[in-house]
Amino acid sequence: MNQPETGQTHLKNKIPVVFSVDDQYALYLAVTIQSIVENSSEENFYELIVLEENLSSASKRLLSSVIEGNTNFSIQFLNIASLTEKYGKNNLYTCFHFSPAIYYRLFLAEILPDYDKVIYLDSDLIIQKDIAGLFDINIENCYLAAGHEWICLLHSARMYLNANLKMKTPWKTYFASGHMVMNLNQIRNTNLIPKFISVLRKNKKLRTPDQDVLNIVCQGKVTFLPPEWNVCWHWKDYISPRLLKKYRVYETGTNPPALIHYASDRKPWNSPEKELADLWWFYANKLPFKEKIQRKALEDRCRFLQKNYDMVVNSIPWKMTKPLRNFYDFLKFDLPEILKLLTGQRKGK
After folding, report:
1. From CA 38, how far away is CA 126, in angstroms rounded?
2. Are residues 159 and 119 in the same domain?
3. How far apart are the two ends of the chain, measured CA to CA in Å?
4. How confident is the model at residue 262 (pLDDT cuts 50, 70, 90)?
5. Is the same domain home to 237 and 323?
6. Which end of the chain is less packed: N or C, by CB atoms within 10 Å?
């Protein structure tokens, strides 16, 4: 496993930003990087570190091209296949729309032994302010800084977290793992990685495995991000306006949010009609290979719509109501035609 170079410059503040990606998400990660570049400062040096296992040379060239001409940016690709083999891929189970790449963040303290503190970002978000503002958050006495995951306001989510994570007030303490500032030095010193693996081995039914593991192990040693650095677009789909207002979710003052995370299976590329999707496309359309992004987005949107269609037509409620829908179709379409036919026969007599 190669290590990133750390000696690019000693004159500027270094901001290490870590991603994990595969070929499926490489084009979308390019949009995230584009948003960081556009909102960067010449006073800082941004070290982009991409964790991967089988990322193609074409994807690496594409991602590298985003920072071309920016002397205060570097990008490194670290193949960590040996590490996932070490901890056993059988332990790294996935569910829903997640891929094995979600687990890379658990091993950062080992992957990056020369770094004491890093930003970790998923590949489905954009940054609208200098990301140095996120890196500067003080986590000296904590394992990490992360944002509240407000989905836990839902009754079903609270029941799950109470039963599986033993959280009595999850809306106060449960956090999202898709955008974090991580104190790798503290994680190393307290030897947390074996604890992460132990929790994974004991819990095979976690809904968001990496996130739940981090919440179980890191509770009490977490700093919560300011609201502007923690906006997730799926909250409005699930949480009532009353609760959003009560807990000041989405409250970023008069300024636009600094970080927008397009969490859930809905993404700006498969659901471009949704609120905040236009901000993602603003950065996507600035890239020289925007046509590639648009073609892939169209393909992914078709797959997404087909998947949701199949889910609906194969659901039990849909099957149970099929006789009623057939009867409705008969009344609306077939019966008028039958009456017309009968009327026409009578007229002919």
Report:
1. 11
2. yes
3. 90
4. very high
5. no
6. C
Per-residue HEC secondary structure of the chain comes to: CCCCCCCCCCCCEEEEEEEECCCCCHHHHHHHHHHHHHCCCCCEEEEEEEEECCCCHHHHHHHHHCCCCCCCEEEEEEECHHHHHHHCHHHCCCCCCCCHHHHHHHHHHHHCCCCCEEEEECCCEEECCCCHHHHCCCCCCCCEEEEECHHHHCHHHHHHHHHHCCCCCHHHHCEEEEEEEEEHHHHHHCCHHHHHHHHHHHCCCCCCHHHHHHHHHHCCCEEECCHHHCEECCHHHHCCHHHHHHCCCCCCCCCCCCEEECCCCCCCCCCCCCCCHHHHHHHHCCCCCHHHHHHHHHHHHHHHHHHHHHHHHCCHHHHHCHHHHHHHHHHHHHHHHHHHHHHHHHHHC
Instruction: Note whether residue 307 is domain-resident.
Output: no
Other CB atoms closer than 10 Å to residue 321's CB: what's the count? 12
> 91: which 2 tokens?
């332990």
Residue 117 shares a structural domain with residue 260: yes
**What is the pLDDT, as a whole number, of residue 306?**
72
User: What would the pLDDT profile of 30-72 be if each residue is shown by its tens digit?
Assistant: 999 999 999 999 999 999 999 998 899 999 999 999 999 999 9
Which residue range(s) make up the domain with 105?
13-297
Cα separation, 214 vs 144, whole angstroms: 10
* Predicted pLDDT at 15: 97
Highest averaged pLDDT of the listed ranges 115-119, 304-308, 335-339: 115-119
Which residue in the block uniquely carries the two structure tokens 């990660």? 29
- Structurally, how many domains does the chain consist of? 2
In whole angstroms, give the CA distance from residue 76 to residue 60.
Answer: 9
Backbone angles phi, psi at 133, to 5 degrees: -65, -30
